[in-house]
Write a structure and sequence with these properties.
It is a single chain. The chain is an alpha/beta fold. The chain contains 8 helices and 14 strands.
């Protein structure tokens, strides 16, 4: 049995146990930020009140360069109102479309900040792009835990498994908790398709294989998405689906779509896409674990804009 098969078998067994025993299923609250089309999650254990926060959002007004905490404070209110204890602040990857609020939430609610171990590759690439200097550590030390493929963790009495699902970026992870999988930017709702793969370190072929790995989980596995953009003809935002629904109906990667066809589609489509509006501040801050660059002598923190480099 290969290492991949062993990890998938463990993830499948976890999902099946949770399907059979309701006490092993997490309580999940989604918080949608329409400005960035991002969904943040609070995942909690009903038995103990332990919780994880996944893919939080710091509000950022690009024109003025100002941050605020409306989105994060909704999470604070939910956590405190339900007497939850935050054990983890998890990032599925270094986001290019929003800034993480993890440091703000960690200060107020506690918990360990975690991301995939391949963040060091992203830090290396973008550290050079932003000419971050030797003071910017490219070893993942801005995070409390670096998850590797197959690593396990707990949220109270709930079981969790981390899966490395690169392609959108080299560091993308999916996190399976009970019968739920938080899959970041690998897939969107079935009527919208899949994530782009043209960022530095992205790879459409790798993304296809990562998605097929996720779709090998039981059909009933609940999938929670990082974004929704409302496909044409759909009037409401949505961010929960299942493995079975994706296999049957995803417009880019349903059963029967070959790897070659997917790569051709994804490559052609990605050439038409503009860069995300917040890629420059987003990546620059998120590779630092959500911390702004160190203030300069005047006490002000600055976001660099590389010209003609992206």
């Amino acid at each position: 049995m290969s290492e991949n098969d062993t990890i998938l078998a463990a993830a499948t067994a976890q999902v099946e146990r949770a399907r059979a025993e309701p006490r092993l299923r997490p309580t999940i609250a989604g918080f949608f930020d329409e400005a960035t089309y991002t969904v943040s999650y609070v995942v909690s254990d009903p038995a103990t009140g332990a919780a994880a926060i996944i893919d939080s959002v710091l509000d950022y007004e690009a024109a003025a360069g100002r941050t605020s905490y409306r989105s994060a404070d909704r999470i604070v209110e939910y956590v405190t109102g339900n007497a939850l204890t935050v054990e983890w602040l998890i990032e599925t990857h270094a986001h290019a479309d929003h800034i993480s609020a993890a440091p703000y939430l960690q200060e107020r609610l506690g918990g360990r900040l975690a991301i995939g171990a391949e963040i060091v590759r992203v830090q290396e690439v973008f550290g050079k792009l932003f000419n971050a200097g030797t003071e910017f550590q490219r070893d993942g030390s801005q995070f409390d835990r670096l998850f590797r493929d197959g690593d396990t963790f707990r949220i109270g009495s709930l079981e969790g498994i981390a899966l490395h699902v690169p392609g959108h970026t080299p560091a993308d992870m999916a996190f399976i908790v009970g019968d739920a999988a938080f899959i970041g930017d690998t897939m969107f709702m079935p009527d919208y398709g899949t994530a782009r793969a043209d960022f530095p370190g992205g790879d459409a072929r790798q993304l296809y294989r990562s998605i097929r790995r996720l779709l090998a989980l039981p059909a009933e596995t609940r999938l929670f998405l990082c974004h929704d953009y409302k496909a044409p003809g759909r009037d409401v935002f949505a961010w929960e689906t299942t493995v079975g629904q994706q296999r049957e109906g995803n417009v880019h990667v349903r059963d029967g779509v070959s790897e070659e066809d997917f790569v051709a589609m994804r490559t052609t489509r990605d050439r038409t896409l503009a860069m995300p509006a917040l890629i420059i501040p987003g990546v620059q801050v998120n590779i630092r674990g959500g911390h702004l660059p160190e203030p300069e002598a005047n006490g002000v923190s600055y976001i660099k804009i590389p010209v003609n480099a992206l």
